Amino acid sequence: MDIGHAYMSVHEDEPYFRFFDEFKGRMAEIHHNGVNHYWGRYMEHQPPHLNNMIDFQRTYERLRDDGYEGPIVCEIQGMDIAQVIRHCQESKDMISGIWHGTLSMKNRWYEAT
Fold first, then answer.
1. In the structure, what pLDDT confidence band is assigned to residue 113 with cuts at 50, 70 and 90?
2. What pTM was estimated for this model as a whole?
3. What is the 3-state secondary structure (H, E, C) of the chain?
4. pLDDT tens digit string along 86-104?
């Protein structure tokens, strides 16, 4: 399941989470990226600090609580490989923190500490 594509297909949080019910136990891979909404359009493949649409906290808590054990693939764009690596590390830290209960995000975007 590509969380960015899933979110952009419904435009609201609750319908987005219906995919988790529909595909529970059948998801083989998660594609992670942020989605930024501005000027009436979406931009996907954003790093977590630019995301302003996907509720990452609820998303990764839900996947964890549903018993998801597969890979999470970062699909994040950058200007060069160094930037992509930074954004993927930022994503890894955020996902790991949520998954292990050591991070509670107050916003939809990730603020690295």
1. low
2. 0.91
3. CEHHHHHHHHCCHHHHHHHHHHCCCCCCCEEECEEEEECCEEEEEECCCCCCCCCHHHHHHHHHHCCCCCCEEECCCCCCHHHHHHHHHHHHHHHHHHHCCCCCCCCCCCCCC
4. 999 999 999 999 999 999 9
Q: Which amino acid is at 108?
A: R
Whole-number average pLDDT of the chain: 92
- CA dihedral sign, ordered 69, 49, 17, 98: positive
